[in-house]
Amino acid sequence: MPSAEKRDYYEILGIDRNASDDEIKKAFRKLAREHHPDLHNDPPKKKKAEEKFKEANEAYEVLSNADQRKKYDMFGHTGGPQGFGGAEGFDFGRGFGDTFSDIFEDFFGGGRSRTRPEQGTDLQYNLEIAFEEAITGKEAKLKIPRWEICEKCSGTGAHSTKGVKPCSGCQGTGQLRLQQGFFTINRSCGQCQGTGQIISDPCPACRGQKRIYQERMLSVTIPPGIDTGMRLRLAHEGEHGVNGGPPGDLYVAISVKAHPIFARKGNDILVTLPIHFATATLGGKVEVQTLKGKTTVKIPAGTQHDRVLRLKGLGAQGLKTHQPGDQLVRIKVEIPKKLTAQQKELLVAFAKESGIAIDESEEGLLDKVKNMFE
């Protein structure tokens, strides 16, 4: 059990006792950023931060070491008969600089040069296309706003080679070496922002920024069979990198407009075909619209409402297989709203012959007919 003088290490880091090594490190990073003494100028706050920082250091040093963590879990702050190998159970000499160097790099600059190549940002363009264009494919022109390398200065940011000079603050290294207590930290130079260079004569086009924000017209091939939610990747067509870094990529996100007649399910095309109840009963041939124009479909006698007929090969092309799907024709049996006297007479005779009890009013008769097909 922890002693009364010290807080539990797990409590200090705000983690549970089953925390993974990665969770322990993340918890310490958070506390280190918050309580590092060099981030506080007010003396009382600085002193309080030092105490919390040392407390977090001690907890992390023990819990980040598998053997010491095991001892702590068994014996608490004493570390058992052998202890932790250091004063008050905390060994300051065990690879301290290596343990924390990556953590302090995060907020002290880490000696990372601002002149290293950096890849450009990926971009996404949302493109809406017509239903037919998704089926047949097309060539699309896109106007893409992006950061590009300044052509006038070739990305140097200077009007001429004489306009770039080494920074006097860091002697052209982009880094300042600072002593922080018992360890040394490399920090980005504030005078040149870590670049190691001072641009005394900026490029008039980009004003020393090395890149220019402008629109570029690009062509993209929309393949047949594409659908909503799919993305096309145009390699190296994103924003340009800096300091010789490669450009990012451009992703074209596809959205397909709804069609007044057709719908789509995978590679199959769906369409509803209204037919007369007499055609549904006796059979016949009816024209149906397809993506390739009108075609004739045979209606079998006795076709029921909502029956689906399949037209092979008249669907959308598969992106990978390049094989077309089918067109699915859903039958909708239509009942006439009005009858002539002769039509009514014939229909009544049909109902009586079929043994169907009917209301011989026009409305009642049509309801009976409608029920026959639903």
- In the sheet with the most strands, the strands line up as 10-11-15-14
CATH architectural grouping of the largest domain? Ribbon
CATH domain class of the largest domain: Mainly Beta
Form type: elongated
Q: What characterizes the major β-sheet? A: 4 strands, mixed
Count of the domains: 4
Count of individual beta strands: 15
Treating each run of at least 4 consecutive H or I residues as one helix, how many helices?
Answer: 9
Explain briefly what this protein structure is.
This protein is an alpha+beta fold and 374 residues long. The protein has helices spanning 9-13, 21-35, 43-63, 66-75, 96-108, 131-136, 277-282, 341-353, 362-372; strands spanning 123-129, 138-149, 164-166, 175-180, 183-188, 197-199, 211-222, 231-234, 250-256, 263-265, 268-276, 284-290, 293-299, 308-311, 327-334. Helices cover 27% and strands 26% of the residues.
Describe this structure in words.
With 374 residues, this protein is α+β, with helices and mostly antiparallel strands. It folds into four domains: 99 residues, Helix Hairpins (Orthogonal Bundle), CATH 1.10.287.110; 134 residues, Heat shock protein DnaJ, cysteine-rich domain (Chaperone, DNAj Protein, Chain A); 76 residues, Urease metallochaperone UreE, N-terminal domain (HSP40/DNAj peptide-binding domain), CATH 2.60.260.20; 36 residues, no CATH class. Helices cover 27% and strands 26% of the residues. It contains nine helices and 15 strands. It has a four-stranded mixed beta sheet. Helix 2 packs antiparallel against helix 3. It is elongated.
